[in-house]
Amino acid sequence: MAQLTDDCFAFSGPLLPLAEMERLIGERVAPVIETERVMLRGARGRVTAADLKAPVDLPPFDNSAVDGYAVRHADLKAGGDTKLLVGGRLTAGARSDMPLKTGQAIRIFTGAAMPSGTDTVFMQEDVTVEGDHVIVPSGLELGANRRLAGEDVPAGNIVLPAGTVLEAQHIALAAALGLTELDVRRRLKVAIFSTGDEVVEPGAARGAAAIYDANRYLLSALLDRLGAVVTDLGILADDPAELARALAKAAAWHDLVITSGGVSTGEADHVRSAVERIGSLVFWRVAIKPGRPVAMGVIRAAARKDYAADSGAAFVGLPGNPVAVFVTFVRVVKPLLLRLAGARPQTLMPLPVRTAFAYKKKKDRREYVRVALRLRHDGEIEAVKHPQDGAGILTSLTETDGLLEFGEDVTSVKLGDRVGFLSYAALTG
Known about the structure:
The protein is of the alpha/beta class and 429 residues long. 19% of the residues lie in helices and 30% in strands. The chain has 3 domains: 18-34 and 186-341, 3-Layer(aba) Sandwich (Molybdenum Cofactor Biosythetic Enzyme, Chain A), CATH 3.40.980.10; 63-147, Molybdopterin biosynthesis moeA protein, domain 3 (Beta Complex); 351-428, Beta-clip. A hairpin with a 2-residue loop joins strand 8 (128-130) and strand 9 (133-136).
């Protein structure tokens, strides 16, 4: 199970700043320790368990970057064209041990190994062919159009540091180095619940005062993008004892338990008290909008024969409104999930855009505003605020491109201000 202690998120203030939360996660949460070896074709989204060093040079030999003619640079005239006899033809994959005599060139194709003695390649469109000779112009630098062995990766260099979340480009690099398997940390096991007597399963009979549950489907899709193994444990009623039993049972089999709804201060919001029965809920409000009532803690596992007595799981309680669930997942849950998975912290890089609106906010909290992008007449990109702010407006996510991030010190934004934009792709990937 997750390597956590009851004080892993220790925080004494009423509202936890986002930067402080990320610092505490980095310092006091340990990744899962189990590792496994996986084939390259199944490695996307996994996290490297150790530094991966290149077993060979990449490329493994000097080769031509173009179709053309390989020459010895010392044979070229300094002030004019040079006429060379074409002494052979070399394609990619062919042996490169043909002899090169003074005053000769070798017809060569992209990817072919450089013949011994050659050090420069002329592109075929820059030369003139006359029978069995080629005329090359002056001015080409020594080593032009030649790819050196190891210029991409020298053998022994670290190419994929521990904690790399593997994407297509990483897998391609491993394949180019001749690898077929990689050592990765095991997948995280995450349980998800929804809470609330008003929530029903999509497709089920819905009462007049009930709503269909979107949050579990949202969370499942977000977790799947991050490579977690998700167990959907359904909808829990607003009953503290039942909640406590279900959470403890889930903690015995999972690294992280996520609930949505029931962590506010209403009389029917029972998640907080349930968690306090079986663990430690050490903070439950984050300085973020939307999504302030988000909780983190540790819950003890229900009895099992094959687990340590002190085992348990991390716990995150998210708000009930789906937009707040989305925002708190990408900005609160995701850093925790990456840390538990052994991945290196993700540095979000907001892209500068112009605002097409004015805005005011409270100080000392991080705020995220849903926007669509459009191109201005002057070529700048501007952000258009969605007309509805409500944390329950799901179309405010489907009709926009991402979030504007307003820092804790910001209290107002003017029309045309340059601000930071975070795309949904960057937030969820």
